[in-house]
Amino acid sequence: MDDGGVPLEDLEASEDREDADLWFLPGPMEVEPDYLPPGPAPEPKESDVVDAWRAAEAGQAAQLARVAARLGILGERLRRGPAGWRQRLALIEAADLSWLTQDRIGLDRLSLYMALRVSTVTDDAQALYRIGWTVRRLTGGPAPLARRSGVGDLETFLGRRARSGQGERLDEAKAPLRMVEMAEREAFDDRAAGWLAMMDQAEDLHPVARACMGFHLWHVAELSPVDDPLEAAVTAARVAIADLAPSGIAPGAIFAPIAMGGGGGFRASGDPPTRLARWLNAMEGATFAALRRLEQIEAWAANAERVMAPLSGKTPPMLRDLFTSWPLVSVQMAEKLTGAHRATVQRNIDWMEERGLIREVTGQGRYRMWRIVETRATEARSTSDRNDGLSAEDIYDVLAARR
After folding, report:
1. Which is deepest, 51, 140, 329, 385, by most CB within 10 Å?
2. For residues 239 and 256, what is the distance between their CA atoms, to the nearest angstrom?
3. Over the stretch 18-73, which tens digit does the pLDDT of each residue have?
4. Under a CB-based contact definition with an 8 Å cutoff, are residues 142 and 156 in contact?
5. Domain range holding 330?
6. pLDDT confidence band for 272 (50 / 70 / 90)
């Protein structure tokens, strides 16, 4: 009861009715929508990032096994073949990567640059420098990751050091400006240490999945400019194959081809399962394309050896090996790499062209270039003699069935 003798319950009910009649007043604050923008989301922990890639790897186990099997076949094929095969695949992969980075260096320009350091007026010196580094790293050089690797190993692999005796010398006159800027930043060691720490935490991942994770974390660590995926792609190609080759035997595949399967594997969009799926699709197609190229080269070499048997001297076999190691060959390249006289080289090249072993692809007066002629007949005959009717795809199917 209040002072007027009115029960408290009746008083509260009457106040509620009066408030209900005030329809023009705004409602309570707690029921109004929140129009404020959301605050910054918390950054994921390093362990959460690695766990996401572990889950992605588990979801792609079947395709990952197929890719690993094909990489094993490619490594064995390269292990028992000449060293020129690795160089040939590296040149093709580097040329495809140049289109990814908008440098667009063709095989003819790349071959002339790597063999003779020849460039035309329209060539971009910085682009040739970058793609030349790509070829060198895809054919050998220090490994980006190893047991207990540190920032110095990665810095040497990238050629960021400018001091003598510590990796490749960074020639600022030829190196791209953005590469020089990245090398001069004092924070590179910290960023590289962070990236290496993430890769160490993912040491239990399959090398192919670990390489995919490292590629997509590369720009998060700001190791290269955002619009330059070349260093990240080359590093990932080396990481993907690093632990697949048995130790103590002759080297086979030095890198895992990716760009030969298209640029879809390098797309930086989607969650880890989506990125890993694109990565595996591109690597599977690229590895199969590399195996087919090696079959064609081996078939051509066997046919060329039979056709060129009547020729005498050292120049014919050297030219045959040269055409298996380089996608495109010019007279100037052959003269320098074989040590033969230019007239002798030109005469043998003309003879090979007349016999249908090679064909010219440039159609110009200077720096004419030739490539091998790949025929289905010689390819089928050589494949049948070598594997009793088994192609690279058949060998893969047999190994998969055994597993």
Report:
1. 329
2. 8
3. 555 666 666 666 655 666 777 676 666 777 899 999 999 999 999 999 999 999 99
4. yes
5. 310-372
6. very high
Least Cα distance to 333 among 131, 88, 139, 113 occurs for 113
User: Who contacts 134 (Cβ-Cβ below 8 Å, separation ≥6)?
Assistant: 93, 94, 97, 98, 230, 234
Q: What is the pTM of this model?
A: 0.78
Q: How many domains does the chain have?
A: 2
Same structural domain, 235 and 332: no
Please tell me the distance from the alpha carbon of residue 182 to that of residue 381, in angstroms, as a whole number: 52
- Report phi then psi at 74, rounded to 5: -60, -45
Q: Do 155 and 272 lie in a common domain?
A: yes
CA contacts within 13 A on the Cβ side of 291: 24
Distance CA 103, CA 124 (A): 8
Q: Which of 297, 363, 313 is nearest to 78 (CA)?
A: 297
Residues 199 and 88 occupy one common structural domain: yes
Is 128 part of any domain?
yes
Angle between helices 315-325 and 331-338 (to 10 degrees): 120
CATH number at residue 320: 1.10.10.10
Residues 257 and 365 in one domain: no
User: Residues 333, 265: one domain?
Assistant: no
Which stretches within 117-206 are classed as H helix?
A: 125-139, 151-158, 177-184, 188-201
In a domain, 266, yes or no: yes
Domain boundary among 270, 286, 302: 286
Question: Does 296 reside within a domain?
Answer: no
